[in-house]
Amino acid sequence: MTAATASNGAAAELPLIELYRRMCTIRAFEERVTELYRASAIPGFIHTSLGQEAVAVGVCGALLDADTIATTHRGHGHCLAKGADVEAAMAELFGKVTGLCRGKGGSMHIADPRLGIIGANAIVGASIPIAVGAALSSVALGRALVSVAFFGEGAVNQGAFHEAVNLAAIWQLPVLFVCENNVYAEFTDSRTMSRRPSIAELGPAYGIPAEQLDGNDVQLIHARALEVVAACREGGGPVLLELSTYRWQGHYEGDPQPYKPASEAAEWKGRDPIAHAQARLEEAGSARGDLEAIVSAARNHIAAAEAFARDSPYPAIKEAYLHVYGG
Amino acid sequence: MSMAAETRTVRYMDAIREAIADEMRADPSVILMGIDVGASGGIFAVTRGLYEEFGGERVRDTPISETGFLGAAVGAAATGLRPIVELMFMDFLGVCFDPLLNQAAKLRYMTAGALEFPLVVRTQTGAGRSSGAQHSQSLEAMLAHVPGLKIVLPGTVEDAYLLMRAAVRDPDPVIYVENRRLYGRRGGLPDESSIGLPIGSARTLRMGANVTVVAYSRLVEVALAAADVVAAEGIDCDVIDLRSLVPLDLELILSSVARTGRAVIAHEAVRSFGAGAEIAALITENAFESLSGPVVRVGAPSVPMPFSPPLEAACIPDVEHVVNAVRQAAAYG
């Protein structure tokens, strides 16, 4: 999913069919990962982004390969949307040596610095200041790169969020803060954990622009992301986007979710970002068969990635002792 | 280490500043940030003059926001900068441990070396001026317990300079621990030939055949003074300045203990679960046959550092404590 580059050095706008294709890949990846985890083929913890694909695809599609993202424990979609190799990402989840991090990171720690993916992170809120640091590098080294921090609304109650936004604001750094508001912070309804009506209203509190968008409308997200990323790149300072979406699955795979009203979950499933994009494509003349072929191709790709991961070896035991220090 | 005859004499704090300035001149990717490090020159004036020379883009004042700026330094280190961050007091680790504990220390490992973290965290400690329990702690053992961090603790002017230069050039996160009671100590700067040595070698500052005394930071000068006292009693100390806790120069310690058969470890941090306990265990595991008696530790008692001057004085390891420990060690065999 590498970025196309427009003549002005910014990422080119992607057609809806390409946004759709990318969302289908993430959907197929997450669905299969869920099954593999339940079958004990994947160890550890798994947090999927099913239902939230539009955020990852819309935002990452507005970035250049060298732009950086820092994300969370629920980061598979962001990493794939930024261009992470599907086979190597799957192998990482299996803990295999062919994984993006040689199996030493796992689901919560996928990274690929060659694609600007400076890491998923398992400490809620911790990646937000790290993204600010990447933006500081961009400015200090004259690189004109944009840094994106993906985080959930739960992380907004961490001090790290507030410190990071304030730092980016006073230094006017090229950071796009993307709050993926999926309603639940672990097992808790986020609306009960703060009296704030929205996350977006925190932007003006720190002197930065902010807005709230439908997090399930990939075209809308992509179009707006292209604009705000361009403004960041041109030195306009940080921007906060709150993208309203919904976490279809539990906090982690295996979470029985007694805290979620069934009617609410059903309502949000009716706002499936992929079905929404599909309907638009059909309205614009795409044949249903062609769109279904994209879904099948995505599933085949994931099946191939699974086979690659299963066939790959684990790292040699000596690797446990490597990479602690560089010198 | 040889010193040129014309070597200038500077203070420990000047040596730190000069090392930072020399690295910033040599490498444009080195930046400095922290609370008040800019035009105001830092709370102890260690960074005075750097803002004027390098400007506000490279010498950045931060808000009182340690999680934010330490976390940002981790991200900057991962993407091409070599940040030097000042954590004003070591005690403030309490508000920003995550960027060190879970980020800087682990991200290189978890990415199988794809990301590097050439980050220096300057901090300082030093009880003895009634700073109270929240501004007096030596917490290096807590950091040394976390794989992935390196910890240097200069005890001399020369090392204040050398270890800062080595820390900035190191590819890993290095915690550079100053002792504020050493800031005014004077000494010579090293000659050019010793610059660029990697972190991890201790050095012997005094040779002796009877008792090995291992120390670091301010306790180095305390150990040397104690060695003078016991020398009058016929006890000759081998005094080792560790310079870094991680990596630990175990080889030098063991070679000394092989000659002396007795060891004392002295630090300002609390004795319980401290660096001295780890080193004592390593000596016992690796050189038991050489030992004439138990390894003796000198450290602060396990109490928060008291404010009242006589109470504080009673809790800070000093010459008398090291002298007593050496006598205790020498009494065996």
Structure description:
- The complex is a heterodimer of chains A (327) and B (333).
- With 327 residues, chain A is an alpha/beta fold.
- Chain A has a single domain, classed as Thiamin diphosphate (ThDP)-binding fold, Pyr/PP domains (Rossmann fold, 3-Layer(aba) Sandwich).
- In chain A, strand 2, helix 6 (159-171) and strand 3 form a beta-alpha-beta unit.
- In chain A, the strands form two sheets. A five-stranded parallel beta sheet of chain A has the order 1-2-3-7-6, with helices on both faces. Chain A has a two-stranded antiparallel ribbon with strand order 4-5.
- The mean pLDDT of chain A is 96.
- Chain A is built from eleven helices and seven strands.
- Chain B is an alpha/beta fold and 333 residues long.
- Chain B has two domains: 9-194, 3-Layer(aba) Sandwich (Rossmann fold), CATH 3.40.50.970; 203-330, Rossmann fold.
- Chain B contains twelve helices and 14 strands.
- Chain B has a seven-stranded mixed beta sheet, with helices on both faces. A five-stranded mixed beta sheet of chain B has the order 9-11-10-13-14, sandwiched between helices.
- In chain B, helix 3 packs parallel to helix 4 (97-104) and helix 8 packs across helix 12.
- Chain B is globular and about 60 Å long.
- Classes of the chains: A alpha/beta (327), B alpha/beta (333).
- Chains A and B meet through helix 5 and helix 6 of A and helix 3, helix 4 and helix 5 of B.
**Number of extended strands of chain A:** 7
Q: Which CATH architecture of chain A would you pick? A: 3-Layer(aba) Sandwich
Q: What is the residue-averaged pLDDT of chain B?
A: 96
Q: Work out the count of structural domains of chain A.
A: 1
**Broad shape of chain A:** globular
* Class by alpha and beta content of chain B: alpha/beta
Overall average pLDDT of chain A? 96
Task: Determine the oligomeric state from the structure.
Answer: heterodimer
Give the C-alpha Rg of chain A: 19 Å
Order of strands, main sheet of chain B, comes to 3-2-4-5-7-6-12
Helix residue percentage of chain A: 40-55%
Distance between the termini of chain A: 34 Å
CATH C-level label of the largest domain in chain B: Alpha Beta
Number of strands of chain B: 14
**Ranges of chain B with pLDDT <50 over ≥5 residues?**
1-5
The helix-and-strand class of chain A reads alpha/beta
Shape of chain B: globular
Strand content of chain B: 15-25%
- Specify the biggest β-sheet of chain A: 5 strands, parallel
> Would you list the SSEs of chain B in sequence order as H and E?
EHEHEHEHHEHEHEEEEHEEHEHEHH
